[in-house]
Design goal:
The chain is an alpha/beta fold. The protein has helices at about 45-50, 95-100, 155, 165-175, 190-200, 215-220, 230-235, 245-250, 265-275, 300-305, 320-330, 350-360; strands spanning about 5-10, 20-25, 30-40, 60, 65-70, 85, 120, 125, 135-140, 145, 180-185, 205-210, 225-230, 255-260, 275-285, 310, 345, 365-369. The protein folds into two domains: about 5-160 and about 335-369, Medium-chain alcohol dehydrogenases, catalytic domain (Quinone Oxidoreductase, Chain A, domain 1), CATH 3.90.180.10; about 170-315, Rossmann fold.
Length: about 375
């Protein structure tokens, strides 16, 4: 039987979010109703609110979530009622060309719930990244649920659902960072901080954090940075002749780093990333650019420097492999997942949390339901 619960929606572009009643329908055959315990406030949710991800208003926001399976569809076999799960937006299909060639992290046909959630007047909601978890409960496909250690803190492990996984996966999975290698991370927000923590976990010996905020750079040391650089203090430059590039090379014997993670996603930071790596080094773009951005690089430099230029989608993660792994490492005290939780708030506090996020005052606000 359908039920009415609370949910946070964005009704129109740039309007303040609203806490309203929403309707959770009966689950379809492969659908699952999850009672949300915690959900992180992610930049992607802000992008939905501000019109940066389509115009399918009203959006049911929230996607970085953990909770308890409350009811399941008749054909569900992946989870059972009572399971503690972290939600993901890459429920792989197993049938598309990416899955069939053994690269399910690039699945082109991921699953979502088969029936829509609505407002009480019947208006269909667009759930953020197919999840919509700023709510008492949400409806997802069974493949969007990954079971993890039920004794873990929901506020901490919920962050594996997006931002933390995107950052650490960019370094470890996409960047293929190896023990003893060097890495530079541009941008020390939540995603960049997770890349730094992932690099530390992977055994990188030189980890250079780059930002324009000294407070964030100091925090980066806590997550494993061995060196910090304030790019604003160093000043501007062109192409390869930038003070920031020179500073990174000075810290790496004159060569540049093996891997650079661009967690900002702007043309100027990408150019910096391109030139501050060693010959045959790897650049990983995980910061999400906007539609009007364009990149200008000399093609001979692209050829001459070699290496690889990659984009990290969801940190190239496989939720069924990675979520339990990093939950266990967190539980063992080997990965500082809980340190990404800056504050714990209620469903009615999301709009204020967006303001704090835009001001750079938090790594993650986490809604406790």
């Amino acid at each position: 039987m359908s039920e009415t619960v609370r949910g946070v929606i964005s009704r129109s572009k740039d309007a303040d979010v609203e806490l309203v009643d929403i309707v959770i329908p009966d689950p379809g055959a492969h659908d699952v109703v999850v009672r949300i315990q915690a959900c992180g406030v992610c930049h992607t949710d802000l992008a939905y609110k501000e019109g940066g991800i389509g115009d399918g208003y009203p959006f049911l926001l929230g996607h970085e979530a953990a909770g308890i399976v409350e009811s399941v569809g008749e054909a569900v076999s992946h989870v059972v009622v009572g399971d503690f799960v972290v939600l993901n937006w890459r429920a792989v299909c197993g049938e598309c060309r990416a899955c069939k060639r053994g690269q399910p992290q690039y699945c082109f046909a991921t699953f979502n719930a088969s029936v829509p959630m609505t407002l009480t007047d019947g208006t269909v909601l667009s759930p953020a990244l197919g999840i919509g978890a700023f709510a008492d409960k949400t409806l997802v496909h069974e493949g969007q649920c990954t079971t993890v250690d039920p004794t873990a803190d929901p506020a901490a492990v919920s962050l594996l659902g997006c931002g933390v996984m995107a950052g650490l996966g960019a370094a470890v999975n996409t960047g293929e960072l190896k023990r003893g290698e060097s890495v530079a991370v541009i941008g020390c927000g939540g995603v960049g901080m997770a890349a730094i923590a992932g690099a530390h976990l992977a055994g990188a010996t030189t980890i250079i954090a780059i930002d324009i905020d000294d407070a964030k750079l100091e925090q980066a040391r806590h997550f494993g940075a061995t060196h910090v650089l304030n790019s604003r203090t160093l000043g501007a430059g062109e192409g390869e002749d930038q003070p920031l590039v020179a500073a990174v090379r000075e810290l790496t014997g004159g060569f540049g780093t093996d891997v650079v993670v661009d967690a900002v996603g702007r043309p100027e930071t990408y150019v910096q990333a391109f030139y501050m790596r060693d010959l045959a080094g790897r650049v990983v773009l995980v910061g999400v650019p906007t539609g009007e951005m364009r990149l200008d690089l000399p093609l001979p430099d692209v050829f001459g420097r070699g290496g690889s230029l990659k984009s990290a989608w969801y940190g190239d993660c496989l939720p069924e492999r990675d979520f339990p792994l990093y939950t266990d490492l967190y539980q063992q005290g080997r990965f500082p997942l809980g340190d990404f939780v800056s504050e714990r708030i209620g469903l009615g506090d999301v709009e204020a949390a967006f303001a704090r996020m835009k001001a750079g005052q938090v790594l993650r606000s986490v809604v406790l339901v």
